[in-house]
Design brief:
Helix 2 (25-34) packs across helix 3 (36-45). The protein folds into two domains: 2-49, no CATH class; 52-92, no CATH class. It has three helices and two strands, in the order αααββ. It has a two-stranded antiparallel ribbon with strand order 1-2. The chain has helices spanning 2-20, 25-34, 36-45, and strands at 54-56, 63-65. The chain has 92 residues and is mainly alpha-helical. The longest helix is centred in the N-terminal third of the chain and has 19 residues, at 2-20.
């Protein structure tokens, strides 16, 4: 019974931190409940996807992360953009 309470609280904590970093609450909740301490460490070390630099696809103008090489909407091959065209959402 004690393990279930510990797993529930670690799952909630892991899910909340994962949701705050822009990921799925439910997936991180499951990871935190199954692997309590390891799940919490993993979500803390997980990168924040919201702070990644972005650019627009030149064909369909969909905003994409800088590391995306092919646009998932139109299939255009993307090359390194002009530095002025890159948007940095994490930098204020």
């Amino acid at each position: 019974m004690e393990y279930l309470v510990i797993a529930l609280f670690f799952g909630l904590g892991t899910g909340i931190v994962g949701k705050g970093k822009g990921s799925s609450f439910f997936i991180w909740f499951l990871i935190g409940a199954v692997l309590p301490l390891l799940g919490l460490i993993a979500v803390v070390l997980y990168r924040v996807d919201k702070d990644e630099p972005e650019r627009q696809c030149p064909t369909c103008l969909k905003p994409l992360k800088l590391y995306v090489q092919v646009c998932p909407r139109c299939g255009t091959d993307l090359y390194l953009p002009d530095p002025a065209a890159v948007r940095h959402p994490g930098v204020r």
